[in-house]
Fold this protein.
Amino acid sequence: MPPQVLLPNEIEEVQIIKQWLNTRRSGAKVELSVPRQGTPQELVEMATENAVETLKALRTQWEADTNRQTEALAELQQAMQLALPPNRIECYDISNTQGTAAVASMVVFEQGVPNKKLYRRFNIQTVEGPDDFASMQEVLTRRFRRWKAAQEVKDGQAPGSKADPAFALLPDLLIVDGGKGQLSRAEIVLAQYELTGIVPVAGLAKQQEELFLPGKPDSVVLPRHSQGLYLLERIRDEAHRFAITAHRKQRTKIGLASRLETVPGIGPARRKTLLKHFGSLDAIKQASVEELASLPGISPSLAQAIKTQLE
């Protein structure tokens, strides 16, 4: 274990991570730092570039190798005792900070390859506090409600409506990021929409990369270096990346909104005016004093106060 670890940006729970690293390095401490200049910063930038290029190469190699994809899907079919290979796989993940800015992701892989046009994000609406189980149930309820609505459009029961292609088809395999708790909530939703036994579902637990299946007391663990496990990990990691990216954006918006509301003279009406005109808090932050002051009710001094607060 090295005495110093250089990072590209600040990370959450840094103290917990440092404590764990110190247990792996006897007799000395491990320092985590984010270099801002000089050789250390150049090293981080070079490592980042190398990692990005390597990841791109591996993804390109995987997506071009149909044999690996076929092998991975066949391994999942066998491990989960599916009737057919799961050509369309959906995976869901929840991201929040102590229940704040809770966001869920839905990623879709077809034939073992991500279809990013079908990715969707959900802002959690009905759950208070850090409850991943309830959040998962809310998201899946909304997903299959939209599937049902798409069927009504298809059957002509909702003339003039347009079905979202992300929700129009059922998955061949539904994966929820988590263990038995998340799986049980997924089963509740599938039963609600009479899809039990129609949509195969599994919970993927991070710790041992275990698959939990409905009605099975023991988890399924794929061979360590199998293509099926590699595909599962990639799908799960993509769902996590997509969820945490959305969560960070949401958290930034909340932070900017809180700072905006601390400006004397900015109440609900003026805040609504600013958002309606600029479209987002990020756009307000980027606007000039003159642009802010051009709005009704926003004086030059108030515009300057807004800029100062959001900088």
Q: What stands out?
A: Residues 133 and 171 are 21 Å apart (CA to CA). The beta strands are 4-6, 31-33, 88-97, 100-110, 113-114, 120-123, 173-177, 201-205, 210-212.
